[in-house]
Automatic annotation (TrEMBL):
<keyword id="KW-0963">Cytoplasm</keyword>
<dbReference type="InterPro" id="IPR036192">
    <property type="entry name" value="Cell_div_ZapA-like_sf"/>
</dbReference>
<keyword id="KW-0131">Cell cycle</keyword>
<keyword id="KW-0132">Cell division</keyword>
<dbReference type="GO" id="GO:0030428">
    <property type="term" value="C:cell septum"/>
</dbReference>
<dbReference type="GO" id="GO:0043093">
    <property type="term" value="P:FtsZ-dependent cytokinesis"/>
</dbReference>
<dbReference type="GO" id="GO:0032153">
    <property type="term" value="C:cell division site"/>
</dbReference>
<dbReference type="InterPro" id="IPR007838">
    <property type="entry name" value="Cell_div_ZapA-like"/>
</dbReference>
<dbReference type="GO" id="GO:0005829">
    <property type="term" value="C:cytosol"/>
</dbReference>
<dbReference type="InterPro" id="IPR023688">
    <property type="entry name" value="Cell_div_ZapA_firmicutes"/>
</dbReference>
<dbReference type="GO" id="GO:0000917">
    <property type="term" value="P:division septum assembly"/>
</dbReference>
<comment type="function">
    <text>Activator of cell division through the inhibition of FtsZ GTPase activity, therefore promoting FtsZ assembly into bundles of protofilaments necessary for the formation of the division Z ring. It is recruited early at mid-cell but it is not essential for cell division.</text>
</comment>
<dbReference type="GO" id="GO:0000921">
    <property type="term" value="P:septin ring assembly"/>
</dbReference>
<protein>
    <recommendedName>
        <fullName>Cell division protein ZapA</fullName>
    </recommendedName>
</protein>
<keyword id="KW-0717">Septation</keyword>
<keyword id="KW-0175">Coiled coil</keyword>
<dbReference type="Pfam" id="PF05164">
    <property type="entry name" value="ZapA"/>
</dbReference>
Length: 86
């Protein structure tokens, strides 16, 4: 895909503006930014003394943890489906 097909959008996450460029739709990019913003605010409300860098790292750790759990669940479901089909 060429750069002309990429979407470029400015989003706000935790009070900072970021320009995001990607092939996903602008609504998808906005949704991702909104979820990151919500998670940062949730973690910050429980740990108000965290600086922004530590808050961002904890948010990333939470996101990757969620991703790995979902990935594991998907793999188990795919294996179960394969056994049922065989």
């Amino acid at each position: 895909m060429s750069d002309a097909q990429k979407n470029r959008i400015t989003v706000e996450i935790y009070g900072q503006q970021y320009v995001i460029v990607g092939y996903e739709s602008t609504s998808h990019i906005r949704l991702v930014a909104s979820i990151v913003d919500d998670k940062m605010r949730e973690i910050s409300s429980k740990n108000p003394s965290l600086d922004t860098s530590k808050l961002a790292v904890l948010t990333a750790v939470n996101a990757v943890n969620d991703y790995l759990k979902i990935k594991d669940r998907l793999e188990r479901l795919e294996n179960e489906l394969k056994r049922v089909k065989d």
